[in-house]
Amino acid sequence: VEREDDILKDTQRLIETYHDEGRYAMLRVVVAPCSPFSVSRDLMRESASLARQYGVSLHTHLAENANDVAYSREKFGMTPAQYAQDLGWVGR
Predict the structure, then answer these.
(1) Is 20 left (phi over 0), alpha (psi -120 to 50) or beta?
(2) What pTM was estimated for this model as a whole?
(3) Tens-place pLDDT, residues 58-71
């Protein structure tokens, strides 16, 4: 398991080194924590902030099945979509 600061720094390095924002680019880097259930709230928030800072996309596995929805309701008191919105993942 990597430290969250290291994850974010390396993601920034990859964006700065490899991301091509050209219209028909074939090499794009996105910020993509595996799922909001396997990383911290801070990493989810900071991932969204980093993506917006660089104008890149976000990707995660938000609600792949009914168990994810039930887990989110139990652990966070909200649906996965509400949780994503609470973490700043909804919007541009």
Answers:
(1) beta
(2) 0.90
(3) 999 999 999 999 99
